[in-house]
Amino acid sequence: QVQLQESGPGLVKPSQTLSLACTVSGGSVAATNYAWEWIRQPPGKELEWLGAINARGITFYKPSLKSRITIAKDTSKNQFTLQLSSVIPGDTAVYYCVGGVAYDYWGKGTQVTVSS
Fold first, then answer.
1. How far apart (Å, rounded) are the C-alpha atoms in residues 21 and 8?
2. How far, in whole angstroms, is CA 106 from its chain's centroid?
3. Which of these, 22, 26, 27, 59, has the minimum number of CB atoms within 10 Å of its CB?
4. Alpha-carbon distance 34 to 22, whole Å?
């Protein structure tokens, strides 16, 4: 069974870069038919898709975040990562890493708060 676990700081200051990692177990980030994605849920709001990286390493981003977001894979660590630069309080959310053919596997989520 594929399991995903998010890790990273729970508090980030405005204008800094939010960096999260998702460690994959029971599967490989190099799997040819899987995509790896980041989704967040701000307080009181719906789930928001942020971006994805596919098996070939091609990335897809939410257009409104394209200037600030980077998703990458590290096959040596079996991880994929999220970087979101120039964060604002509106980036405060629970961040989920997701993987599979069609959002099959979810991490438990990690709270990230943007505050000075």
1. 6
2. 11
3. 26
4. 14
Instruction: Report residue 19 as tokens.
Output: 């960096």
| Residue 65, SS3 per DSSP | helix
Q: What share of the chain is helix, strand, coil (3-state, %, to 5)?
A: 5, 50, 45
- The Cα 112–Cα 82 span in angstroms is 12
Strand partners, 110: 95
Can you tell me the distance from the alpha carbon of 47 to that of 4, in angstroms, rounded to the nearest whole number? 18
Is pLDDT of 15 > 90? Answer: yes
Query: Which residue in the block uniquely carries the two structure tokens 């307080």?
Result: 43
pLDDT tens-digit map of 73-115: 999 999 999 999 999 999 999 999 999 998 899 999 999 999 9
